[in-house]
Every structure is written in structure tokens, then in C-alpha cells.
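WARN retry 2 of 3 for item q-0093 after timeout on previous attempt; input resubmitted unchanged.
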Amino acid sequence: MKCPFCAHLDTQVAETRISEDGDFIRRRRRCSHCDKRFTTYERPEVSFPTVVKKDGRRIDFAHAKLQGSFNLALRKRPVSTEQIDSAIERIEEKLLNLGQREIASNRIGEMVMRELKKLDKVAYIRFASVYRSFEDIDEFKTLVDEVNK
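OK item q-0093 returned
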């Protein structure tokens, strides 16, 4: 592996550790040229289904986009980062377990809404109002009434 400091190609692994949950391997490396140390992480590569947008375009699944949706909906809400990460993990696990090569973007949106409803009702309403493109106040009121039941 190339050294991030001097770009030399000769580096040795000084230490290897498996994460507590076993999801990745952490390696401490040392460059034989500049003698600096750096850390690398080894994770299994998984392939998520391609997302099919409403207009028919196909795009790669993006973890950052999913996380951005959660962060926007949960902005200034009393929900911990750990809870958000867990919700995202559950969605990603469902996507992987589907075993499909493609998935409609609206199915992912519905998964997000289900997770947000469990985490925070206000965030759920925020997301749903944008996601479902409400045309009038009655649609919004219906959603709020549904949450209050």
C-alpha cells in the first residue's frame, strides 16, 4: 500500500486488530522509506441494488444521501447519532437482504419514513411533507392526525 505521506510503495503492517463487532479490520502500517505510521481499514465490499428514480434514471445507492435525508429530517431533534446510525443500518440491511439488483426510490423513501416514525414524530412529518409533495393543508393535516392516533 502506498504511503500517504511520501507516496512510497513499500509499507509493512505493524499491527492488526479486528473491530469489536467484527465488521472491519484495522491495520497500523509503517512506511519503510519515511518511517511514518498510518492506519488503514479493511471492510467487506457489498453491492447495494441500483436505485431507479421516478423518471426512470438509474443511479448507484449512496449511503451519504440516505444519511443526509435522516440528518435533515432530524435536525435540531433529540435523537442521538447512534439511533440514526442504527436506523440507517437497518435500511441498508433490508436492501441487501432483498437480493434484488434494482429498487425503486419510493421503496427506499417508505423505509426511511417507517424508521423516522419510530425515532421522532416531528422528523417523520417533516420528511413526509417533502417526500409526498403535499398539495394542500388538508393532506398535511391528515398526516398529523395519523401520527396522533
